Amino acid sequence: MIVAMSTIDKLIARMTLPEKLGQMTMTAASHAVTGPVSAGDATDSIRDGTLGNLLNLVGPAPTRDMQRIAVEESRLGIPLLLGFDVIHGHRTIFPVPLAEAATFDPWLWERTARAAACEAAADGLALTFAPMLDVSRDPRWGRSVEGPGEDPWVAATFACAKVRGFEGKDLASPASLAATAKHFCAYGPVAAGRDYAPVDISERTLHEVHLPAFAAAVRAGVAAIMPAFTSLAGIPMTAHKQLLRDYLRGTLRFDGIIVSDYNAIRELINHGVAANVVEAAVLALRAGVDIDMMAGAYREGLPVALERGLVSMAEIDDSVRRVLRLKARLGLFDDPYRRGTVAEAPAVVAARRALAREAATKSLVLVKNAAATLPLPSSVRRVCVLGPLADAWREMRGPWAAAGYDAPGVTVRAALRESIPDARIDHAAGVPITGGDDAGIAAAIDLVRAQPDAVVLCLGEAAEMSGEAASRAAPELPGRQREFATAVFDRARAADVPVIVVLFCGRPLVIPWLDERADALLVAWFPGHEAGHAIADVLTGRVSPSGRTPMTWPRSLGQVPLYYAQYANGRPENAADRFTSKYLDASSAPLYPFGYGLGYGRCAYTNLRVTPASAGPEGVFEIAVDVTNEGSRTAEETVFVFIRDRVASVVRPLLELKGMAKVVLAPGTTATARVRLAATELALLDVAMRSVIEPGEVDIFVGPCADPARLLSSRVLLCG
Ligand code: BGC
Q1: Are 174 and 60 in contact (CB under 8 A)?
Q2: 1-79+260-341 matches 603-718 in fold
Q3: Residue range 137-142: average pLDDT?
Q4: Per-residue pLDDT tens for 560-616?
Q5: pTM (global) more than 0.85
């Protein structure tokens, strides 16, 4: 039974101001993860009804104990809302979100969120601060790892899949979590890629690139939204009335809760838009923030603000009502212990390892495979697994592994031992991930000298080098890894041993030299608990790699921000003409374009058909292309559909992703990939920022990635 609105209103009528502000406050249960603990200890406040929401309390016993205090010992017995950052799995850790995005598989995105929700709910939780939907086009920004990459269409598709997965069909189910779309909005373009820095982008970029994913999340029924820490064109998002109240609640009709980011309300003072905590609290409430996470600003500031007439009780009641309504939708009034009481069957938990392996395998992106170095031939008898990430079980899980830190990740070294038991597997780290210690290089090079069949060189970042507060001014291989790799390449070339690089990273790295020297290069990102198994599956050819990069990889840092959907310009690049858009000292082409990734098959695209050739605003274009696997191994191919509006009233991107399809092809077979594209998808924002479908010609491009040279094209006519 869901609690009726009148019941909620009756409850609000009985609440004191401190009790109301308690429902509008969330504090960390015991430990702070990402910021100062300014709100103090939780237990007493829960008992006296002045704290209604907690984060970072996990596990059936502790959540039950706290819930019991709220329900049985506080005056009104209002259940707690317990939230946690379930980012890429809860107990079972899946690939980091950027890696998951690389699967381009919405059904997989949904299934991993569902699995994470089941585990988190079994741990007593009811709210996750995920999915993160920030579009990122700058690899310096460490939080690129938490999101879906550079493309707004991917981000919107990811948003829907994740919200469906976390929330399930019914939020009241004991296995559902309320999802939080974050960080609203345009956190990705922080100045120069530095975390928390101000953002200043155009209204057009905001609406075309950064808002679509949030609009999609709202359409999918997301329960909560978290404003970003950042300011946008001079207005901190936590105080952004136009975007939170007018756009989100007004235009998008979002009726869930808005929960601030960690201490963000108090940080309005640092932004310089509030002189003190009272002003900060007023700004946030006025903007529509319902829950103050960790700042204690509502409890401290709103009583004073109310007294001074700066806010009204009705505004406070509105927020309290939304919080209580979410608790009701989660079924907490019916049974506050509905989550975290029934332990999951061991077989169910074990099955998640299979899903983690599937997700990890599909997230690996093979970016180079010279002379068919991979898969390893079945004749291999000696493999040398080198590098600081070859046996680094901690790093495999990636940043922000929720409650999954208890279990180690499977390493490449361990998994290769399992999957090629007849081979001798030698191992040396060579150098640490960071720092200047190169004492281990000589011993590692000796192993290469021993003439193995292949070297698997595991390089990259440490997990904590991406994520929040992990921006890097030079996103390259850290420490002495380049020197080590160069020594390995030199020695291996002399011995005619192929070197397969497995690269762990939370963002695209600037590594043109590595691409040049490696025989094969597999981008592993951070694959989660099943890392090693997934990588071994691909290295040995049990599975053909199918991941595609969801962010463009730059050749040099000066190209950043680099992304495929560049707006057209008046002087397109022309090598023969100096006065065109390019660099004097570097190529403007990416190292790997968006969508790039190889498989063990070899796919050719032919016979692109788009019907009808013209359509009005109600029309739907059917796009079909034949894909043939000309290789000798099965391939899973991701087929992308991009458009370009040839002449519009405003400048359009040279390519815009509008759809995708997947085909699985046995060697020598052909399949037709089909995508339906509604004419409404071709709408654009005109000069006045109105959404319009403009008559005219539109190019449809189809192919394996955003490299124009590899796309087939057709033209359709949009009629008015
Ligand atoms: C992060 C959020 C996160 C919150 C709670 C903040 O520092 O920006 O993404 O949900 O902490 O842990």
Answers
A1: no
A2: no
A3: 98
A4: 999 999 999 999 999 999 999 999 999 999 999 999 999 999 999 999 999 999 999
A5: yes
User: With contact defined as beta carbons under 8 Å apart, do 162 and 179 qualify?
Assistant: yes
What is the chain's alpha carbon radius of gyration, rounded to the nearest angstrom? 26
- What are the catalytic residues? 261
CA–CA distance, 399 with 381 (Å, rounded to integer): 35
Which residue bears the tokens 């004191």? Answer: 16
**Residue 140: closest CA among 465, 526, 576:** 465
pLDDT digits (tens, 9 = 90+) for 65-121: 999 999 999 999 999 999 999 999 999 999 999 999 999 999 999 999 999 999 999
In this structure, the strands spanning 235-236 and 454-460 are: unpaired
Whole-number Å distance between alpha carbons of 44 and 623: 62
Ligand 1 geometric centre to CA of 468 (Å) = 8
Pocket of ligand 1 (CB under 6 A): 33-35, 55, 85, 129, 182, 261-262, 468
Give me the DSSP letters along 479-539: TTHHHHHHHHHHHHHHHT--EEEEEE-SS----HHHHHH-SEEEE-----TTHHHHHHHHH
Question: Exposed, middle or buried: residue 275 (CB in 10 Å: 0-12, 13-18, 19+)?
Answer: exposed
CATH number for 603-718 (one of 2.60.40.1220, 2.60.40.10, 3.40.1120.10, 2.60.200.30): it is 2.60.40.10
Candidates 27, 468, 471: which one to mutate for ligand 1, based on the most atoms within 8 Å of Cβ? 468
How far, in Å, CA of 342 to CA of 174, rounded? 9
Model pLDDT for residues 112-127, shown as the tens digit of each residue: 999 999 999 999 999 9
Specify the ligand 1 atom closest to the Cα of 34.
Answer: 7
pLDDT digits (tens, 9 = 90+) for 15-36: 999 999 999 999 988 644 444 4
CATH homologous superfamily for the domain 1-79+260-341: Glycoside hydrolase, family 3, N-terminal domain (3.20.20.300)
pLDDT of residue 41: 65
Which of 261, 266, 293, 294 to probe ligand 1 with, by most ligand atoms within 8 A of CB? 261
Domain ranges of the chain: 1-79+260-341, 365-546, 603-718
Q: How many residues does the chain have?
A: 720
pLDDT confidence of 406, banded at 50, 70, 90? confident
Q: What is the mean pLDDT of residues 539-543?
A: 97
| C-alpha 263 – ligand 1 centre gap (Å) | 9
Rounded distance from Cα 537 to ligand 1 centre (Å): 34
pLDDT value at 37 more than 70: no
Atom of ligand 1 at shortest range from CA of 130: 10
* Residue 329 Cα to chain centre, angstroms: 26
Decide if 696 contacts 681 (C-beta within 8 A).
no
- In the sheet that 257-258 helps form, which strands lie side by side, from edge to edge? 180-184, 224-227, 257-258
Please state which CATH number belongs to domain 365-546. Answer: 3.40.50.1700
Hey, what are 163's tokens? 């919200």
